[in-house]
Structure formats: C-alpha cells, structure tokens
Amino acid sequence: MIKYEQHDHIIYHGDALATLRSTIETASVDLIFVDPPYNIGKKFADFKDRWPSDAVYAEWAYAWIDECIRVLKPSGTMYLMTSTQAMPYLDLYIRERLTILSRIVWSYDSSGLQAKKYYGSMYEPMLHCVKDAKAYTFNVDDIRIAARTGAERKLIDYRGKVPKRYSTTKVPENVWHVPRVRYRMDEYEDHPAQKPQALLERIVRASSHAGDTVLDPFAGTFTTAAVAQAFGRKSISIESQAAYLKIGLRRVLGFETYQGECLARPVKNTRVRNGRGLKKAATTEDFCSVTDDGEQKALSGNTLLSDW
Ligand SMILES: C[S@@+](CC[C@H](N)C(=O)[O-])C[C@H]1O[C@@H](n2cnc3c(N)ncnc32)[C@H](O)[C@@H]1O
C-alpha cells in the first residue's frame, strides 16, 4: 500500500480492507461514502467484479463494513451503495449495527433499450446510516431543493385560518433523480462506474461540516474526494487500481505526472461532421507538452465546481 498526501487530502493505493485495518484510526472519520464493486461482473482495469457466490460477496463486504463502523466517529454517518441484488444482505447486516435513517433510490434515465422481456433496472440503492440516531450531522438547509407546488406552480394553501403560499423549497426525499455521468459531460472520467458529482455534493453537504474528514474506501474516479475538497472537507481515499489512482492524483492532489506519464483529463473524441467535412479531433498533444527534462506536463486543470 502506498500513501500520497497533499495538505488535507490522502490517497492510498492498495486494498480497501487491508488499508482500513492497518492505517485508519478508530473513531476518526465523520462521513463515509462506500461504493464497492457490486458483484455484477464489471471490469475495473485489472480487477473483475465477480465473486463465487452472493454469500462469499456478502462475507467480503461484512469485513469492510465492520472496519467502516470502527473508524466512524460516534457522531458519524455512512452512505453505502451496492447492487439491488446484494443490498438485502448488507441491509440486514448493517441494521443490527447502525441506525438506517433512509433507504435511498438513485434513479436515472436512459435513452437505450434496457430489456425486452422484463422491466429494465434504472436505479441503484443506497443506505443512509448513522451510529447515533440522536446525534448526527444533517445540514438540512444546505441541501434544500425547489418544491414544485410553491416554487413553480405558486399555489396558495387555503386550508388554514389565513391563506398562505406553499413553501418554495423542501428537503429531498429518498428518491434522487440525478443523471448518470455520460461521455460528453465535463465531469466524465474514464471509469465504468463513475458516480455524479451532484450525488456526492448532496451527501457531503448534508452529512459533514467544513473541516470534517470524509472517507471513500473504493474511490474509483475520486469524485467523493474532489467534492469534499471543493467544500472544505478533508478526505481519505483508497483505490486498488493504478489506472484510477492516476485520476485521483490529478483530480485531488493536483499531480501533473505519474511515473513519467502525463496525467491529463480524458481526451474525448470531438469529431463532428458538418457540411465542410470532418472537424479535427482533440489529441493528447493538445493537453500535454514535453518539458525540458522529457517529462510530459499536463496543461489542463481540475474540473471546477462552477462547471456543474
Ligand atoms: C463502483 S467503483 C467506485 C466508483 C466511484 N464511487 C466513483 O464515483 O468513481 C469501485 C471501485 O473499487 C475499486 N476496487 C475494487 N476492489 C478494490 C479493493 N479491494 N480495494 C480498493 N479498491 C477496490 C475498483 O477499481 C473501482 O474503481
């Protein structure tokens, strides 16, 4: 396991369970976002997301769940995602150890055909759990959203003694409609399970304060840490795959190179056909220059939150 650190942000390149056990102190973390492999056969660089059975997957998950509970402060919060198939196992395990406040559905749309002989799955489940149901962080005013009745339809409630306007804002309920990250979106990184910044923004803002420590044991594209950083939180991330470590080093720690390789943002195919033929596609050279000592240097910066 290798540690990279810059100011208040730490990245571990290694196995989540081993790193949690050997490096993270008991009761030291305010907020955990866990988005592990789902046991659905995805390919994460050199790692294949498939366990021999549901039971073996659940046993593996129980081990890191125990560790997450250990490192969480008494006032801490954990959000946990997994596949719809695996969630019942983890829900049963967690509800005996933490208080599950909400069972959240992250719902999204797709223009593609999902299934022809059954209802295609268009959501992912997420648990919102706390150690102490009487003392946990929930910054309700930081995550309010527009309430249609009051904000858009401007209706008046005549049921009381005095008519009044419906509230223009409300606290989000447990069905979150957030678009998935698509190739042409600015926040896109080259990873098969990237979670949207908007999803993490709600979680980080609701369940932590500035200066708190946010942990993500399966960091992937490091969205959790990037959002934590943008909102003045500290972060600890763990990722086993070098291909994704590089995203974190660039996105969170601001590294421009890794072992001589330029850490530029993904180069997207921007070829568009128009009446005058093909426009030029972007290439790596558009984003990197070779410095005097031969090292490639990234020219592009991190995504700005104002881009969201
Ligand atoms: C579902 S993805 C996380 C995606 C992430 N939330 C995001 O928004 O990009 C799971 C990640 O866990 C990593 N991973 C798989 N096994 C791991 C392990 N034992 N320890 C640490 N990371 C692991 C995979 O490489 C993958 O990037």
Note down, in words, how this protein is organized.
The chain has 7 helices and 21 strands. It has helices spanning 16-23, 54-71, 87-95, 148-152, 197-207, 223-230, 242-251, and strands at 2-6, 9-13, 29-34, 43-44, 47-48, 72-81, 99-107, 123-130, 145-146, 156-157, 164-165, 169-170, 175-177, 213-216, 234-239, 257-258, 261-262, 273-274, 277-278, 288-290, 296-298. The strands form 7 sheets. It has a 9-stranded mixed sheet with strand order 1-2-15-14-3-6-8-7-13, sandwiched between helices. A two-stranded antiparallel sheet has the order 4-5. The protein is globular, with a radius of gyration of 21 Å. S-adenosylmethionine is lined by residues 15-16, 35-37, 44, 47, 191, 193-195, 218, 220-221, 223, 238-241, 244.
Blueprint (SSEs and pairs):
Layout (H helix, E strand, L loop, with lengths): L1 E5 L2 E5 L2 H8 L5 E6 L8 E2 L2 E2 L5 H18 E10 L5 H9 L3 E9 L15 E8 L14 E2 L1 H5 L3 E2 L6 E2 L3 E2 L4 E3 L19 H11 L5 E4 L6 H8 L3 E6 L2 H10 L5 E2 L2 E2 L10 E2 L2 E2 L9 E3 L5 E3 L10
Parallel strand pairs: 2-15, 3-6, 3-14, 7-13, 14-15
Antiparallel strand pairs: 1-2, 4-5, 6-8, 7-8, 9-12, 10-11, 16-17, 18-19, 20-21
Helix pairs in contact: 1-2, 2-3, 5-6
The chain binds S-adenosylmethionine.
> Kindly, what is the distance between the CA atoms of the first and last residues, rounded to a whole number of angstroms?
33 Å
Radius of gyration (Å): 21 Å
Along the chain, the helix and strand elements come as: EEHEEEHEHEEEHEEEEHEHEHEEEEEE
Task: Tell me which ligands are bound.
Answer: S-adenosylmethionine
The percentage of residues in β strands lies in 25-35%
Helix content: 10-25%
> Low-confidence parts, pLDDT < 50 over ≥5 residues?
283-308
Strand tally is: 21
Say which CATH homologous superfamily of the largest domain is assigned: Vaccinia Virus protein VP39
Shape: globular
Q: What is the CATH C level class of the largest domain, in words?
A: Alpha Beta
Number of domains: 3
Q: Average pLDDT, to the nearest integer? A: 88
Total DSSP helices: 7
- With strands numbered from the N-terminus, the spatial order across the biggest sheet is 1-2-15-14-3-6-8-7-13
